[in-house]
Specification:
Elements: E1 14-18, E2 21-26, E3 29-38, E4 41-46, E5 49-53, H1 56-72
Antiparallel strand pairs: 1-2, 2-3, 3-4, 4-5
Length: 78
């Protein structure tokens, strides 16, 4: 029989719920966070960008998009 090689799956970021917010983690690296600031309003920050959203789903999607775009864009001044 031939030996099978185990493939390691690429690490995927996960959301972790916390007090008054959520954090987007990749291993031990914090990629972004969403915080409840007012009743029904959420502030988010990720990859050097910040914003405000009306719903948690929209804020989480904005964080995921900012992280995805930051991996593909080259830094301008580095």
């Amino acid at each position: 029989m031939s030996a099978r090689r185990a493939r390691r799956a690429k690490a995927r970021p996960v959301w972790e719920r916390g007090y008054r917010g959520h954090v987007y983690w990749l291993g031990k690296h914090k990629l972004g966070k969403v915080t409840l600031v007012e009743t029904g309003r959420y502030d988010w920050e990720a990859a050097g960008r910040i914003g405000r959203s009306d719903t948690l789903d929209k804020a989480r999607a904005a964080v995921e998009l900012a992280v995805a775009v930051s991996d593909k864009q080259l830094p301008l001044f580095e």
